[in-house]
Amino acid sequence: MAHPKTRNTLYVEQAKLISQDIYDNDQYHMILQAPETSVHAKPGHFVHMQCNSTIYMRRPMSIMRSTPKNNTIEVLYKVHGEGTDALSKKKVGDEIDLIGPIGQPFKIKNYKKYPLLIGGGVGI
């Protein structure tokens, strides 16, 4: 259940881990049930995730996909330190405290079936 709004488009909620798959090179794909975030997320948004109770610094994670009809968001990440290692150990049913959606969204003009995305760092 979502907490009250903290700003116009910023929510704090306990997201439930629906699935977490591992791929080569310590890459993970997680699906989270996050009703408020999923409804308000746009391309370019990200969330701040609390990794566990002993790691105080939240980790920013790009939202790979938002599916409002399922109340879910998807995140793709690579284990690259203590925080993402803690996230990789989460089990289905665990709750993850998150804040989002954050960032400056953008509109896709002249939508193409296969857009080209270029990024840096270790996220999507």
What is the topological layout?
Elements: E1 11-23, E2 27-33, H1 35-40, E3 46-49, E4 59-62, E5 65-67, E6 72-78, H2 82-88, E7 95-102
Antiparallel strand pairs: 1-2, 1-7, 2-6, 3-4, 3-7, 5-6
The CATH class, by name, is Mainly Beta
The backbone outline, from C-alpha atoms, is: globular
In round numbers, the mean pLDDT is 88
Give the total of domains.
1
Distance N to C terminus: 27 Å
The helix/strand order is EEHEEEEHE
Number of strands: 7
Rg calculated over all Cα atoms: 14 Å
The assigned CATH architecture is Beta Barrel
Descriptive keywords:
124 residues, mainly beta, Elongation Factor Tu (Ef-tu), domain 3, globular
Describe the model:
It contains two helices and seven strands. The protein is mainly beta. The chain has a single domain (11-102), classed as Elongation Factor Tu (Ef-tu), domain 3. It has a seven-stranded antiparallel sheet with strand order 4-3-7-1-2-6-5. The longest helix has 7 residues, at 82-88. The protein starts with 10 loop residues before the first strand and ends in a 22-residue tail after the last strand. The model has no long low-confidence stretch (mean pLDDT 88). It holds the Pfam family FAD_binding_6. This is FAD-binding FR-type domain-containing protein. Residues 4-108 form the FAD-binding FR-type domain. GO terms for molecular function: oxidoreductase activity. It comes from marine metagenome.
